[in-house]
Write a structure and sequence with these properties.
The complex is a heterodimer of chains A (295) and B (136). Chain A has 295 residues and is an all-alpha fold. Helix content of chain A is 75%, strand content 0%. In chain B, β3 and β4 form a beta hairpin. The chains are: A mainly alpha (295), B alpha+beta (136).
Chain lengths: 295, 136
């Protein structure tokens, strides 16, 4: 009987959409070494093709196992969302064996989200002194290529200033000291942007941790969805980690009822918005357009 | 109360708690290890650097890390533990000998960059130094 519960596909209770998007994530971001990649791609493809595979607990426990194998093989280099995806797949496999799969997956998704955000807040707010004093985003906006377009577009940094700043941020060899060290130039717009990213990110993540972990669910359901969607709309326009964004959206979608059609469609639309964010260099295009108009 | 939905949550808490402990005790980079410390600190992979010095009869110099040891060096920069330090040192000895270069001692250093909170001036800070005598 217990073995059969792993092999019997669950009945669709609005979960198919959630599981199918998770399968899409496995296909969009193939991961790990050669011995996990084909298996995870195969699981993703088979889940999309076959509803029975999609709803089988065995599918998702296998996905969790291969993700776990990848985490061990890549230790300690794997990104955090790979861990989260592994936990979620395990949660999905356990939920699909339960009498009410939707309720179980909604609960594990909510708690996983809450705890992940709680640890993110712990790191940002308490364990990393260079976050709360603003250094993290001040340096990242200057030194990280992935934020360069946004730093110029919103922060008002020129191309020359960006290059000079990167040279100024390069550490000297041990013991060396320049007579006249180069200074970092930060336009007021860039400092404001760094502050907004620092405090906006921390406050939003702290609110998400609280509402997701808050036990009295029904009264604050709307706040959970509104905050999570707002987080994804804003964060993934800048943060180059679409895989994390998709996973958060899947975990939010898992907390919706089948009848909440508008909300579910908003989650799906945001899933594709994050895809657009990652594939279309919107800040670079706007920067080019701005330069063209000025010229 | 059903416990199966909570099982992955317990796993997350255990791994993330261990990550915090490893970060505090052996300088695991906050960004990695499943503790959700990404985008929280500048002490991450790109701001850590591994340097290797080799000495032997007639030589004492810093060497470039060869391509096949880059993965080990990246893991070491992320988690500068005894295991990865000795693994890289062993790899360097093997690599030097494969190229018929004499080696009797290897020194591995892991550095991180610290940025001043006001000027953002960058300074290199030594995180680990590991001395390794090559077997004859």
């Amino acid at each position: 009987m217990r073995l059969r519960s792993w092999l019997t596909p669950a009945v669709d209770d609005g979960l198919d959409l959630v599981l199918r998007l998770a399968a899409v994530v496995l296909l969009l971001r193939p991961m790990g070494p050669w011995f996990t990649r084909p298996a995870l791609l195969g699981i993703g493809a088979a889940s999309i093709v076959s509803p029975a595979v999609l709803r089988s607990p065995l599918t998702w426990v296998a996905a969790a196992a291969f993700i776990g194998l990848r985490l061990v093989a890549d230790w300690p280099l794997a990104d955090n969302h790979i861990y989260l995806l592994g936990y979620w797949c395990l949660g999905a496999s356990l939920a699909l064996r339960a009498p009410d799969p939707r309720a179980d997956l909604a609960r594990s998704s909510r708690l996983l989200l809450g705890l992940a955000f709680a640890f993110a807040v712990l790191w940002k707010g308490l364990l990393s002194p260079d976050y709360v004093d603003g250094r993290f985003f001040r340096v990242t906006l200057l030194a990280d290529d992935r934020f360069a377009d946004a730093a110029q577009l919103i922060g008002g940094l020129s191309e020359d200033q960006l290059l000079e700043n990167r040279a100024a941020l390069t550490p000297l060899p041990e013991g060396a000291e320049l007579l006249d060290p180069p200074r970092v130039t930060e336009p007021p717009g860039l400092r404001a942007m760094a502050s907004a990213f620092t405090w906006g990110g921390l406050i939003l993540e702290a609110m998400l941790a609280v509402v997701m972990l808050w036990p009295l669910g029904h009264r604050i359901t709307w706040a959970r969805h509104a905050l999570l969607l707002a987080f994804c709309w804003v964060t993934y326009a800048f943060a180059p980690v679409a895989g994390f964004g998709w996973l958060l959206l899947i975990m939010g979608l898992a907390q919706t009822e089948r009848a909440q059609r508008g909300l579910r469609m908003t989650y799906v639309a945001t899933f594709f918005l994050v895809l657009l964010y990652t594939e279309v260099p919107w800040a670079g295009l706007m920067l080019d357009a701005h330069a063209w108009f000025v010229a | 109360m059903r416990w199966s939905p909570v099982l992955p949550v317990v796993l997350l808490a255990a791994v993330a708690g261990t990550q915090v402990w490893l970060a505090r005790s052996v300088d695991l980079a906050a960004w990695k290890g499943g503790g959700f410390g990404m985008f929280s600190t500048l002490d991450d992979g790109p701001h850590r650097r591994v340097r290797v010095y080799v000495s032997g009869p007639g030589r004492s110099e810093e060497v470039e890390i060869s391509a096949f040891l880059e993965d080990t060096a990246m893991r070491l920069a992320t988690l500068p533990s005894q295991t990865w330090l000795s693994r890289l040192a062993d790899g360097v000895v093997a690599d030097e000998r494969r190229h018929d270069r004499p080696v009797s001692h290897v020194r591995v250093e892991v550095w991180r960059v610290r940025f001043d909170s006001v000027t953002l001036g960058a300074t290199s800070i030594l995180l680990r130094r590991y001395e390794h005598d090559a077997p004859p």
